[in-house]
Amino acid sequence: MKVELLSHTPSDDLLASLPASEIAESEFLSHLSFTFAIEGVSRACSHQLVRHRVASFSQQSQRYIQIKKLQDHIVTPPAVAEKAGDEFKSFIEEASGVYSRLVIEGVPKEDARFVLPNAIETSLLMTMDGRSLMYFLGLRLCNRAQWEIREMAVEILQQVREVEPVFYREAGPYCVQLGKCPEGRFSCGKMAKMKTKYCGD
């Protein structure tokens, strides 16, 4: 996985026009904008990502991808690698073979791709305003979030803090942002550790 912050609206530029004391921080964040290039994530991960409808996405189309060695462009979940690595590899090889045979037999690529697994890699651009990004981080940095999108959220937070350390100093999973876990009885019970991990105190 590779995550790169391509551009953002610097808060200093906005503050020069409107002092922070005259606007609530949550409203101010709505005027910030961040654009990321995200590569090497699975389709399973990108399907979760695009559920954040307040963001704008441009995703690589499978229709134009040359899939000769599918196994070289696959994201393997750690749990799968540990418990059923050989079985997973065999499935990927079979899917690759079926896809290739369908294309050779004249099936349009947009139809042949129906056999491709969610594990296949994809790349995309994502643009999100600062307030929506804080919401995204609250959900996706949670211990209960799926491992791949959580790793992405960690990378995003690190890069956002480099350019906007003040406004994202309290960013983290919702238990960190809110001071309580919104999961109720489903809480992981590690709120104190999350506070230390993401805010250092």
Structure description:
With 201 residues, the protein is α+β, with helices and mostly antiparallel strands. It folds into two domains: 2-61 and 120-173, Gyrase A, domain 2 (2-Layer Sandwich); 79-115. It is 45% helix and 15% strand. The protein has helices at 11-15, 25-29, 43-49, 78-104, 109-112, 130-140, 147-163, 174-178, 191-199; strands spanning 2-8, 33-42, 56-59, 121-129. Strands 1-2-4-3 form a four-stranded antiparallel sheet. The longest helix is centred in the middle third of the chain and has 27 residues, at 78-104.
List the helices and strands and how they pair.
Elements: E1 2-8, H1 11-15, H2 25-29, E2 33-42, H3 43-49, E3 56-59, H4 78-104, H5 109-112, E4 121-129, H6 130-140, H7 147-163, H8 174-178, H9 191-199
Antiparallel strand pairs: 1-2, 2-4, 3-4
Comma- or semicolon-separated keywords:
Gyrase A, domain 2; single chain; 2 domains; 45% helix; 9 helices; 4-stranded antiparallel β-sheet; alpha+beta; 201 residues
